TrEMBL record:
InterPro entries for this protein: Ig_TRAPPC10, TRAPPC10/Trs130, TRAPPC10/Trs130_C, TRAPPC10/Trs130_N
Domain TRAPPC10 Ig-like: 799-890
Main subcellular location: Golgi
GO CC field: cytosol; TRAPPII protein complex
UniProt subcellular location: Golgi apparatus
Species per Swiss-Prot/TrEMBL record: Lepeophtheirus salmonis (Salmon louse)
Stored PANTHER family: EPILEPSY HOLOPROSENCEPHALY CANDIDATE 1/TMEM1, TRAFFICKING PROTEIN PARTICLE COMPLEX SUBUNIT 10
UniProt name for this protein: Uncharacterized protein
Domain TRAPPC10/Trs130 N-terminal: 6-318
One GO process term, biological-process aspect: early endosome to Golgi transport
Length: 1179
């Protein structure tokens, strides 16, 4: 009603003036919002003011009994419209009319809610300069509105488009909006005061809630009319709270008379109608004080919903609805109102459908889901009451019940003018109650809507409870295949939450649905679970165990039935029995110890227990360790270990990488062998402590970290072992498995040893599934903490290892080492050895050396190591190291035919048994000596028959052996020298070039056999052998017999030519150590030597700078080549004079290493001077 009404403004005065402005005023008044400043400190609101203009009728005010009890039909503002051009007209007629209008308003009790509007022309605004404020508007303000001058305004003709006219028009609109809101502040203040007095009289026996309801609703209508929907909702909420309090007080006090009148005969259970417009039928019943409890509730809640919808809050409607419906049902029970059967269910169902027709949206699913379920439950009650369920037969009494329910529903209760038009809930209900098929269709529709909405908001448990009711409906309809799906979903929820009794009852219903022929796999699974259920009675467990055993005998063993063993046979531990330090070899026998728990009440005979292995190639699985974590703090504080609520479950072994190899080996973990850890720690929190410290190692913070949060905090309605229905399990197809046959499984824990032969296929085998075959049924269990092993097959490794450094010409031992690895070696295996050129080998000392060798290997076990010594000999003689290659080939005799399995080549370096340290020419004056210096290696040798032979010996030069021994020994790493002299028969030999061959025999010191002797030879070339010059030097002091520091002395040098030459020029240089000698005369010079002048003397002045034993100055001789003086100036190839050095041995310096003792000069500070003489130190 509030949205249909507008504030009433009366019009008086010159009506023609208002009529000329009415259309524009009505359209413009609500075009802009205005701020409503409310009284009593209430929050301001932004509202749009609209109005309805009516002529003033004083008779309407006289008919009102109590003006403070009505709001909507009373004028809120009174206006007086005039058009006056000058003051004369104002005095003659206008002033008297205004005074008469104000007096009539005062008689009606209106003193301030009025407004005078003067329509002026632009010329009338021009006032006299002599008489200011003398306009018509000023007269009105001064004479009529002396205290309320702001209520007298003027406007210019709005048809004009000038700025003054537009400004005056906007001022009128603003003033009128403001005055309307100010008037409402006054009126609402009086109205609320009267309403408060009426509410305080509620304990008066004559007080009636219906009258008070209509009174306060007037206030709600005003707020609704002004667009303040939240304030209007507050009024309805207060009425709701007041009415609820009256009903609750009936338990502790007397029931008011007005409330007793509401608890009369209950003959109308029409549902809610949520049209935004007011339901005048229900409001009239309330106004006449003749409603029922449901009438008041229906009307009050519909008005609350209307306000919420106007506020665009449909989710709030859905949120309030469920509490409203439950409260109404409880109030009817509390007031003990006799209701016909099915009436309450009918009212709830119609109300739910009406609410859902407004609020059914995905955004509101959080609140509409329970409404769909509530409607379904009430439809189910009506169906059971009217005999519409599948197994029921409709009787005449039930037909009468349908008619009775339909009679209490008013079709006119739902307005057909709603936009957009929607389906009438009454029509849906009547159609559903018309037949079983219609009821079934509508019930399934509501159930599906409830389930889908619950799932949409992730309330899976509620959805499955609805599905359980739907399953029972399908069971009654003999559609068990449809019921089984919902029963299984409900079973998952019961199991995840630990409802054992509900799980057992659901399993029994599933068995009825499945049957042994319809779905045998589910039938077996359900029978096994009931036989193991702790909530089932002993008789029930025995019964279903018998059904299970009978069924296993009927199934063929050739095509066994596979089902999940979870809950029947639970794996406790799984451990491979093997030595952790031993690798698992293909073809060996391996055992597995598995412990599982039998939840059945009696012993059962298993024809086979097996563990299926999953194969993966070696190296394809990541290296992982399954050892229980050691909880240690990550902070820097010592002795702060981790604390855990429960340690993570871990298998008894783990895969670790063998050190130094690429083979994964099995390592057992002895820390996880307790049954408690394996069975109880899976769902426990694994928590560790972490401490943080500052940079100065002071404590900062501490926290707890959960290591297995991803496994614990996971959805349990769609994942996890506990929710498996047992039918999705599949037996892995694999030819590799551990097996044990004919096992008697006792109740409780059972430990069984299974065995297998390690397959020949190399790789990693992981225990994936356990299979327990009982008759024709196989119970499959997934092994979560999987045990694994790696089968290895390694080819034998062959290596050749020398025992010492290999030398040319010496027999030495090389060990042939064969690592059998994982292979079994028999008598048919053999090895061939092939040597490169000049290399020979033999296996024993009695055999002869040969380049090819064949060996037969003895029998061996895996990972045995075979060592065979091989003697090798290299005949190649040289001072350089040589490379030899030995190829080892493994083969096997199969039916007398040798089949090569592989070959490998090894390279070895053979070093000479000795090395020539120096092969040099030694000089003594003009004599020449050849020095051969040898040094041994690791092997001590005997040297025989050393022979030097000269080549190009035309000058009759021969060698004289200076050694007396024919042979001598070279110890390991010890040097040996051999010396001989070159005898010159021809003195005119120039010594330019001479060839020399050296050869001798050698043999190892411990091998005296002549066959072991080896010859060594080398060719050498000797150049510039002859001594050309002899140099002799001598120091003579100038004074006395002693050479003193800082005293001059003479260096006398004698140079002698030893061969016949013509005009040979040589250059000499005096070389001294800096800091020891100073040359005081010419340092260099050129001498000419010939046969007539073979010896020359040179004197050079030198001075010793320090005292002590000093090397005498060195005289260096060089070949002097003068410049080419015969060449012309134009010759570009003219060469300057230059010097060239002599070769070693051509110049012999007799005093090369002589020293002289130099004394300090005599002084006063030097006492007890020691005498010294010239000293010659030959080197």
């Amino acid at each position: 009603m509030g949205t249909e009404c507008k504030p009433i403004i009366t019009v008086s005065g010159e009506i023609r003036v208002f009529e000329s402005l009415e259309s524009g005023l009505t359209a413009s008044l609500a075009s802009e919002a205005v701020e409503w400043k409310r009284i009593h400190g209430r929050a301001t609101k932004i509202v749009y003011v609209n109005a309805s203009f009516v002529p003033l009728d004083p008779e309407l005010f006289e008919e009102r009994v109590n003006p403070s009890e009505t709001l909507l039909n009373d004028p809120i503002l009174h206006t007086y419209w005039i058009e006056c051009a000058n003051n004369e007209v104002y005095k003659q007629s206008v002033k008297e009319g205004i005074s008469s209008w104000l007096n009539s308003l005062k008689k009606c009790g209106i003193h301030s809610d009025w407004l005078i509007i003067l329509l002026e022309s632009p010329d009338s605004r021009k006032s006299s300069k002599l008489l200011p404020r003398n306009s018509v508007l000023d007269k009105i303000k001064n004479e009529v509105g002396e205290k309320q001058r702001e209520r007298c305004i003027s406007i210019l003709d709005p048809s004009k488009t000038d700025s003054r006219s537009l400004e005056s028009w906007q001022n009128l609109l603003l003033c009128m909006r403001t005055k309307v809101l100010v008037a409402y502040n006054t009126v609402l203040g009086r109205f609320e005061e009267n309403m408060r007095k009426q509410r305080e009289m509620r304990n008066n026996p004559a007080w009636n809630f219906c009258s008070y309801f209509i009174l306060q609703e007037e206030l709600a209508f005003v707020y609704e009319m002004l667009g303040v929907f939240d304030e209007s909702l507050v009024q309805y909420d207060e009425l709701d709270a007041l009415f609820t309090q009256f009903i609750l007080n009936t338990n502790v006090g007397d029931t008011p008379n007005w409330l007793k009148g509401l608890t009369g005969e209950f003959n109308d259970w029409s549902g809610l109608s949520l049209n935004i417009s007011v339901n005048h039928d229900l409001r009239k019943l309330i106004k006449d004080a003749k409603p029922s409890i449901l009438d008041i509730r229906n009307y009050l809640f519909s008005r609350q919903c209307a306000m919420l919808l106007l506020m665009n809050k449909p989710w709030e409607v859905a949120k309030r609805s469920l509490d409203f419906l439950h409260n109404c049902v409880q109030e009817l029970e509390l007031l003990q109102i006799p209701c016909p059967k099915g009436s309450i269910s009918c009212w709830v169902l119609l109300s739910c459908l009406e609410i859902l027709s407004i609020c059914h949206n995905e955004a509101n699913s959080l609140y509409t889901a329970s409404l769909w379920n509530y409607a379904r439950e009430k439809l189910k009650e009506l169906g059971q009451l009217c005999g519409l369920f599948p197994q029921n037969t409709i009787t005449s009494e039930q037909l009468h019940m349908v008619v009775q329910i339909s009679s209490g529903i008013r079709d006119t209760h739902y307005l057909q003018s709603s936009q957009p038009p929607r389906a009438n809930p009454v029509d849906k209900l009547k159609e559903a109650l018309s037949s079983k098929e219609a009821f079934r269709k509508y019930y399934l529709e509501l159930s599906e809507l409830a389930i889908s909405t619950y799932k949409h908001i992730n309330r899976i448990r509620s959805a499955r409870l609805v599905g359980l009711d739907l399953a029972l409906f399908y069971i009654e309809a003999k559609q068990t295949y449809l019921a089984s799906t919902f029963l299984q979903d409900a079973l998952k929820s019961y199991k995840s939450e630990g409802w054992e009794l509900a799980s057992k009852e659901t399993q029994i219903k599933l068995i009825e649905c499945f049957g042994s022929h319809i779905e045998p796999q589910r039938y077996v699974r359900s029978c096994a679970l009931i036989a193991c259920s702790i909530s089932a009675s002993e008789e029930e467990r025995k019964t279903y165990l018998t059904h299970l055993m009978d069924f296993t005998k009927k199934v063929s063993m050739d095509s066994p039935l596979v089902t999940d063993a979870d809950g029947v046979f639970s794996i406790v531990s799984c451990k491979i029995k093997t030595d952790p330090n031993q690798k698992i070899i293909s073809g060996s026998k391996l055992e597995l110890e598995i412990t599982f728990d039998n939840a059945l009440d009696s012993e059962v005979d298993a024809r086979e227990i097996s563990v299926i292995l999953n194969y993966s190639e070696a190296g394809s699985i990541k290296e992982r360790s399954k050892v229980i974590k050691s909880f240690s703090s990550v902070s820097s504080y010592p002795n702060k270990n981790r604390a855990s609520v429960c340690r993570s479950s871990s298998s008894a072994s783990s895969l670790t990488k063998a050190k130094g190899s690429n083979v994964l080996s099995l390592v057992n973990d002895e820390e996880v062998n307790t049954d408690f850890e394996k069975r109880t720690t899976r769902d426990f929190l694994d928590i560790r402590q972490e401490l943080d410290s500052n940079q100065d190692r002071t404590f900062n913070s501490a926290r707890l970290v959960c290591e297995n949060i991803n496994r614990i905090l996971r959805r349990k309605d769609s994942s996890g072992y506990i929710l498996k229905d047992g039918c999705s399990v599949e037996k892995s197809i694999s030819e590799y498995r551990f097996v044990c046959s004919n096992v008697l499984i006792t109740k409780g824990l059972n430990t069984v040893i299974l065995s297998t032969v390690v397959p020949n296929k190399v790789g990693t085998y992981t225990c994936k599934q356990q299979s327990i075959a009982i008759g024709g049924v196989e119970f499959i269990s997934e092994i979560e903490e999987s045990e694994s092993f790696t089968s290895v097959y390694e080819e034998p490794e062959v290596s050749l290892v020398p025992l010492s450094r290999l030398l040319i010409g010496c027999e030495q031992t090389i060990n042939l080492i064969i690592n059998c690895k994982s292979a079994f070696w028999g008598e048919n295996n053999c090895i061939s050895i092939d040597c490169s050129t000049n290399l020979f080998a033999k296996s024993t000392e009695s055999d002869d050396m040969a380049s090819h060798l064949s060996l037969t290997l003895p029998s061996s076990k895996p990972y045995d190591i075979i060592q065979i010594p091989i003697l090798v000999l290299s005949n190649f003689g040289s001072l350089k190291s040589v490379q030899h290659q030995i190829t080892v080939t493994t083969s096997k005799l199969v039916d007398g035919i040798k089949i090569n399995k592989g070959s490998k080549s090894f390279s070895f370096t053979f070093d000479p048994p000795f090395s020539i340290v120096s092969f040099s020419i030694k000089t003594a004056m003009i004599r020449k000596f050849v020095c051969l210096s040898l040094i041994g290696t690791e092997q001590a040798l005997n040297i025989h028959e050393i022979n030097f032979q000269l080549k190009n010996n035309e000058e009759e030069i021969h060698l004289k052996d200076l050694q007396s021994k024919d042979s001598f020994m070279i110890d390991a790493y010890a040097p040996c020298n051999y010396l001989c002299e070159l005898i010159q028969d021809n003195k005119d030999w120039d010594g330019k070039r001479l060839g020399l061959d050296v050869d001798f025999l050698y043999e190892p010191l411990n091998q005296k056999d002549p066959k072991m002797r080896r010859i060594y030879n080398n060719n050498l070339e000797l150049k510039d052998l002859k001594t050309l010059y002899l140099v002799n030097s001598k120091l003579d002091p100038y004074e006395g017999e002693l050479i003193q520091a800082s005293s001059m002395c003479s260096l006398v040098v004698t140079i002698e030519l030893t061969y016949c030459a013509k005009d040979v020029s040589i250059m000499y240089e005096v070389l001294v150590e800096q800091g020891e000698w100073a040359v005081c005369s010419q340092e260099t010079g050129v001498l000419n030597m010939d046969n007539d002048n073979t010896k020359q003397n040179i004197t050079v002045e030198v001075m010793p700078l320090i005292s002590g034993h000093l090397n005498i100055p060195y005289i260096k001789l060089s070949k002097y080549i003068p410049s080419d003086s015969n060449s012309s100036e134009a010759d570009t190839k003219h060469l300057p004079s230059r010097s060239e050095p002599f070769s070693d041995g051509q110049v012999y310096n007799i005093n090369r290493f002589d020293q002289v003792q130099v004394f300090m000069p005599p002084s006063t500070n030097v006492k007890n001077e020691k005498m010294a003489s010239y000293t010659s130190i030959p080197i």
